[in-house]
């Protein structure tokens, strides 16, 4: 299941694995491996701990800033994160991607998070893997298991986090 990531990504991936794509503004697209429906990331219509695999990429940083017609809510991103964790099944995987580096809000565009912020928001999950696409990606490329220090030097890096929900979380 994907919550509001790039439709390009979901369309391509649906040729490899079936994707259920949910967005505040549902996509009108017909592909064999892709189904699309409406869902609000602040109130997902799924039972607690019911989804085994979720991706949410380059979405949460926009929630609550009004960019896409949503209501202004300074805590919108944290509510969205809470919803993702709520529906994630025991032993389930969450692929979570956001801008990372020196934290700030670029109103009304997006937020940039520090590594420490993301790890704090997901402290009840286990980090399986972390990859950084740095500001100077053309020179360096992707950095797997990038240090907090390298991550925090970014102005607008891309933090790719794979979390797993352990039993009891």
What do you see in this structure?
This protein is an alpha/beta fold and 169 residues long. Helix content is 21%, strand content 33%. It contains five helices and ten strands, in the order βαβββαβββαβαβαβ. The strands form three sheets. The protein has a five-stranded mixed beta sheet. The protein has a three-stranded parallel beta sheet with strand order 1-2-3, covered by helices on one side. Strand 6 (104-106) and strand 7 form a beta hairpin.
Put simply, the count of helices is 5
Structural class by SSE content: alpha/beta
Share in β-strands: 25-35%
Order of helices and strands: EHEEEHEEEHEHEHE
Helicity range:
10-25%
The shape, in one word, is globular
In spatial order, strands of the major sheet run: 4-5-10-8-9
> What average pLDDT do the residues reach?
93
- Euclidean distance between termini CA atoms: 20 Å
What structural keywords apply?
169 residues; alpha/beta; three-stranded parallel beta sheet; 5 helices
Structure summary:
The protein has helices spanning 7-13, 76-87, 115-121, 137-140, 148-152; strands at 2-3, 19-23, 34-38, 51-57, 88-100, 104-106, 110-112, 126-133, 143-144, 157-164. The relative contact order is 0.15.
């Amino acid at each position: 299941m994907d919550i509001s990531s790039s439709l390009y990504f979901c369309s391509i991936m649906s040729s490899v694995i079936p994707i259920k794509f949910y967005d505040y503004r549902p996509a009108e697209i017909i592909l064999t491996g892709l189904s699309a429906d409406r869902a609000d990331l602040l109130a997902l219509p799924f039972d607690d701990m019911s989804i085994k695999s979720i991706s949410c990429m380059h979405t949460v940083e926009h929630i609550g800033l009004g960019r896409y017609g949503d209501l202004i809510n300074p805590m919108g991103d944290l509510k969205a994160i809470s919803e993702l964790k709520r529906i994630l099944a025991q032993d389930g995987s969450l692929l979570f991607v956001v801008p990372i580096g020196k934290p700030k809000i670029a109103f009304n565009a997006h937020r940039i998070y520090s590594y420490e912020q993301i790890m704090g928001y997901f402290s009840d999950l286990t980090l399986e893997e972390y990859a950084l696409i740095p500001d100077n990606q053309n020179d360096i490329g992707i950095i797997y298991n990038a240090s907090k220090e390298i991550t925090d030097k970014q102005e607008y890096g891309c933090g790719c986090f794979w979390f797993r929900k352990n039993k009891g979380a």
